[in-house]
From TrEMBL:
InterPro entries: AKR, AKR_Detox_Biosynth, NAD(P)_OxRdtase_dom_sf, NADP_OxRdtase_dom. Its EC number is 1.-.-.-. This is Aldo/keto reductase family oxidoreductase. The lineage of its organism: Bacteria, Bacillati, Bacillota, Bacilli, Lactobacillales. Residues 17-294 form the NADP-dependent oxidoreductase domain. SUPFAM superfamilies: NAD(P)-linked oxidoreductase (SSF51430). Transmembrane segments: none annotated. GO terms for molecular function: oxidoreductase activity. It comes from Lactiplantibacillus daowaiensis.
Length: 306
């Protein structure tokens, strides 16, 4: 399993992680099977959030972890907070501390390796977040901090108030979600693709040693569906199939490898709750794509170059 260095830390972790957003649909035994499968594949990083399944995903994970063939310290366990579903984003100190306490209890662990702010709160007071982070770290409840779906200015604003270095920004990225690179090809042009929707977040993250964690790697749109084997994307599926046959692997492994080919050293968060799919998807971490293969897949996904 390919590994990456996590943000500005010296920690080496697997290049693909297990995301447990969909784990609420599983029994504890099924979740144990998924954890064991992930660990068997070399995955040592788990991504949770307090809102997944209304907290149920973390509860099931916590129960399954007790049965699985892995100890707590062999895993990097990350969770996210800061969303009150359907109501608001909430980075108040009390909300963040309660979010972590809730996750520690549901996951059945004493500490989170990393805690991420899930989506930017327009009412964020950086000094209040800093106070929450300091308390959480001093209490031994959280070791590292990061963000998710933040743009560079939002990271700057928050980082300026913190005593800890933000090490992660979790963002949607994959073959059918490439806005973060499209605009770079169209710099100083007047077409729609020249618009930077995220202010150069990939370049920013590389400069500031923040690991980009690519969420929903096989989805198109935002939760519109999976592009793998989807008749809406015949060209992309044909291109993935051709490469998969040449490299004796699967289409989903090619889609994973496409993300990992980017020199930003991203980490891919896999969301499958099917052990066979998980194995296929994770296999992409060991597939090398040439520069031309990477571009050919980008074209097959419906893109071109100026
Ligand atoms: N920060 C954020 O805002 C944010 C937002 C969304 C997600 N996330 C994180 O990202 C993780 C992954 O998100 P996701 O679950 O949407 O990612 P995903 O892996 O792109 O999508 C998972 C879905 O695709 C299917 N699938 C995966 N591999 C497949 C394959 N080889 N063949 C056929 N179907 C396949 C899965 O079904 P099966 O289970 O049947 O394989 C499942 O329905 C989440 O668990 C969460 O940790 C973060």
């Amino acid at each position: 399993m390919k590994s990456i260095t996590l943000g500005a830390t010296h920690q080496v972790v697997s290049a693909v992680a297990l995301g447990i957003m969909r784990m609420d649909a599983l029994t504890v035994d099924q979740a144990t099977t998924i954890i064991d499968a992930a660990v068997g594949l070399g995955i040592n990083y788990v991504d949770a959030a307090d809102i997944y399944g209304g907290g149920q995903s973390s509860t099931i994970f916590g129960a399954a972890l007790k049965q699985a063939n892995v100890t707590r310290d062999q895993l990097h366990i990350q969770s996210k907070g800061g969303i009150v579903p359907g109501k608001r984003y909430d980075f108040s100190k009390s909300h963040l501390i309660n979010a972590v306490d809730g996750e520690l209890s549901r996951l059945g662990v004493d500490y989170l390796d990393t805690f991420l702010l899930h989506r930017p709160d327009a009412l964020m007071d950086p000094s209040e977040v800093a106070a929450a982070f300091d308390d959480l770290q001093a209490a031994g409840k959280v070791r590292h901090f990061g963000v998710s779906n933040f743009n560079p200015r939002q990271v700057d604003l928050l980082q300026a108030a913190l005593s800890q270095k933000l090490i992660v920004n979790q963002l949607q990225f994959g073959l059918m979600h490439t806005g973060a690179i499209d605009f770079g090809f169209h710099t100083n042009m007047q077409d729609e693709r020249s618009i930077s929707h995220d202010d150069g977040i990939i370049e920013y993250s590389r400069l500031h040693q923040m690991t980009i964690q690519a969420w929903s790697p096989y989805q198109y749109g935002t939760f519109a569906g999976v592009f793998l084997d989807n008749p809406k994307f015949p060209k992309l599926n044909a291109a993935m199939q051709t490469l998969a046959a040449a490299k004796h692997t699967t289409k989903s492994a090619i889609a994973t490898a496409w993300i990992l080919r980017h020199p930003a050293q991203m980490q891919v968060i896999l969301g499958s709750m099917n052990p066979a799919h998980l194995a296929e998807n994770a296999a992409g971490a060991d597939i090398e794509l040439s520069r031309q293969e990477w571009y050919d897949l980008y074209f097959a996904a419906g893109n071109d170059l100026p």
